[in-house]
């Protein structure tokens, strides 16, 4: 039971992060190492707004996600866009950005472990395991976000343009799709997803300035397993990894120590045996 | 003149792909561009639709080599050589690219709707879609199918249909018959003639010279990035040197 609950929550969180990371990679070939740093920032914003300033937590969440998204767009405009076609430079710039966020958080909130209150208290028990209502709420919110995203991508013109651009940007240009505008919008969506994940997960996790690293590695593993650029792949892989990690933690004695190695092991195996991942897309320029 | 190209030059690093090329297409014509492999036919189409400039921008930003692009391109009396590719489509100059290049992960219908991306009026794009289905009934049958699973001929129909969705005044079609069976080829050429009769001006790049000469109003023969001859199909076939050296007939 523990495995299921923990796996579902971990998996859904990784799915949201992985989708966002995949989206912007697909559309603009940007490998955004700072992706999970935005997730951290959102969590800290919520802490600041709801604990320090005593704002309504839900209002705090909205403000946090909006601020993080705007920050992401600014960063895109002034840092990433000028070097967008230079993969190495983007990699370095986004690592630097993540460091800046980390140090910024360290300076303003110190390195202490912080927590955010549950939105709803209480729990119920199934199979002898306590399930907090907050866990259900977080899971529900993540599912809702996924549904909204699915609708956006599959049923709207913007989604069609994003998917077209992700597959073959030259042809998408020929259809009149504006590449830099779409990249900007997609980055906005991607960072908003990271921010949203941070916001809904904040009550269930412990905030510290290094909290972006572990999900980053997990998210990379998700994207490698699912196939870079594939959204369906990200979702499936996220739950596989979420459950795999939960299973290791709960089934193996002292398994918590092995937690970090699960993702990396899977990542290495996938790269060795099936480098394109489960649902990998071959991009047109590589064909 | 609907399309007028003057002194177009394209150079990738030290390779001269197009060298001082001038040509024109008038409204209602079906003009063909033929010549041996590597003559610069596709590059010409890519240059006028803005793709060479787009590539140059990417190369410039990633500092991975240099593309040199010169000359003027006018469409409908307006200079378009400094307009980005996604803006050129709006003016009705549409390219149906080499190797068809459907969005393989998308369904047939989604591909067609991607072609109509710029059309804001839903009713109008539905009407255009009806026309495409009339022209290519097979696309309607397969509208829900993932495009990567279509046959080569069907993918070509899809590529032309998708270009048609962008409401072209001038449609550039790059090597539509490559890799198709003789039967399928004839079908594709029939459709191109049908498009012309619907009032769309066509600039066609093709390997199959004999068929094209029968269809086209005018032809340009391209070799090493230069126009070396032009005229009707009969005129060009009468010229022994051109026929043997450049057309391989």
Explained architecture:
The complex is a heterodimer of chains A (287) and B (249). Chain A is an all-alpha fold and 287 residues long. Chain A has a single domain (2-286), classed as ABC transporter involved in vitamin B12 uptake, BtuC, CATH 1.10.3470. Chain A contains 11 helices and 2 strands, in the order ααααββααααααα. Chain A has helices at 2-28, 35-52, 57-80, 87-109, 133-155, 157-167, 169-174, 179-201, 213-226, 231-251, 259-273; strands spanning 123-126, 129-132. In chain A, strand 1 (123-126) and strand 2 form a beta hairpin. In chain A, helix 2 (35-52) packs parallel to helix 4. By secondary structure, chain B is α/β, with parallel strands linked by helices. Chain B has one domain (3-103, 168-246): P-loop containing nucleotide triphosphate hydrolases (Rossmann fold). In chain B, 41% of the residues lie in helices and 25% in strands. Chain B is built from 11 helices and 10 strands. The radius of gyration of chain B is 18 Å and the shape is globular. The model of chain B has no long low-confidence stretch (mean pLDDT 95). The chains are: A mainly alpha (287), B alpha/beta (249). Chain A binds chain B through residues 83-87, 157, 160-161, 163-164, 167-168, 170-179, 281, 284, and chain B through 49-51, 54, 58, 61-63, 84-87, 89-90, 94-95, 97, 101, 103-106, 110, 113-115, 117-118, 162, 166.
């Amino acid at each position: 039971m523990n495995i299921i609950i923990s796996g579902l929550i971990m998996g859904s969180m990784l799915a949201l992060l992985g989708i966002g990371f995949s989206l912007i990679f697909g559309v603009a070939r940007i490998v955004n190492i700072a992706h999970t740093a935005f997730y951290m920032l959102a969590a800290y914003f919520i802490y600041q707004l709801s604990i320090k300033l005593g704002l309504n937590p839900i209002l705090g969440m909205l403000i946090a996600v909006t601020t993080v998204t705007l920050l992401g767009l600014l960063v895109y405009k002034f840092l990433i866009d000028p070097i967008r076609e230079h993969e190495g430079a983007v990699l370095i710039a986004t690592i630097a950005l993540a460091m800046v966020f980390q140090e910024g958080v360290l300076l303003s909130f110190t390195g202490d472990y912080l927590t955010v209150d549950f939105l709803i208290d209480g729990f119920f028990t199934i199979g002898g395991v306590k399930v907090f209502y907050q866990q259900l709420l977080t899971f529900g919110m993540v599912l809702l976000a996924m549904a909204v995203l699915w609708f956006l991508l599959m049923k709207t013109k913007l989604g069609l343009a994003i998917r077209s651009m992700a597959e073959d940007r030259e042809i998408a240009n020929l259809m009149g799709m504006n590449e830099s505008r779409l990249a900007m919008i997609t980055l906005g969506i991607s960072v908003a997803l990271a921010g949203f994940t941070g916001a809904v997960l904040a009550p269930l996790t412990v905030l510290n300035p290094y909290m972006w690293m572990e999900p980053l590695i997990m998210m990379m593993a998700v994207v490698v397993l699912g196939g870079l650029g594939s959204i369906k792949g990200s979702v499936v892989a996220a739950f596989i990894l979420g459950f795999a990690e939960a299973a290791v933690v709960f089934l193996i004695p002292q398994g918590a120590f092995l937690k970090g190695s699960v993702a990396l092991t899977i990542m290495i195996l996938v790269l060795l045996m099936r480098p394109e991942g489960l649902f990998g897309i071959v991009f047109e320029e590589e064909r | 003149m609907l399309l007028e190209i003057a002194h177009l030059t394209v150079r990738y690093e030290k390779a001269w792909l197009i060298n001082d090329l001038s040509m024109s297409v008038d409204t209602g014509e079906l003009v063909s561009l033929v010549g041996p492999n590597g003559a610069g036919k596709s590059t010409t189409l890519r240059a006028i639709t803005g793709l060479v400039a787009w590539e140059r921008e990417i190369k410039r930003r990633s500092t991975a080599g240099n593309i040199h692009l010169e000359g003027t391109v006018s469409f409908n009396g307006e200079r378009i050589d400094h307009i980005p590719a996604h803006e050129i489509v709006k003016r009705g100059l549409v390219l149906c690219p080499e190797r068809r290049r459907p969005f393989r992960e998308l369904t047939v219908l989604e591909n067609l709707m991607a072609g109509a991306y710029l059309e804001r009026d839903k009713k109008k794009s539905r009407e255009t879609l009806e026309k495409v289905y009339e022209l290519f009934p097979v696309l309607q049958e397969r509208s829900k199918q993932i495009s990567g699973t279509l046959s080569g001929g069907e993918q070509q129909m899809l590529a032309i249909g998708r270009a048609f969705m962008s409401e072209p005044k001038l449609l550039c079609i790059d090597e539509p018959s490559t890799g198709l069976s003789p039967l399928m080829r004839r079908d594709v050429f029939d459709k191109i003639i049908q498009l012309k009769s619907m009032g769309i001006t066509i600039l066609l790049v093709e390997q199959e010279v004999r068929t094209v000469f029968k269809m086209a109003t005018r032809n340009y023969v391209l070799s090493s990035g230069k126009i070396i001859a032009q005229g009707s199909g009969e005129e060009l076939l009468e010229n022994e040197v051109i026929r043997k050296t450049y057309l391989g007939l």
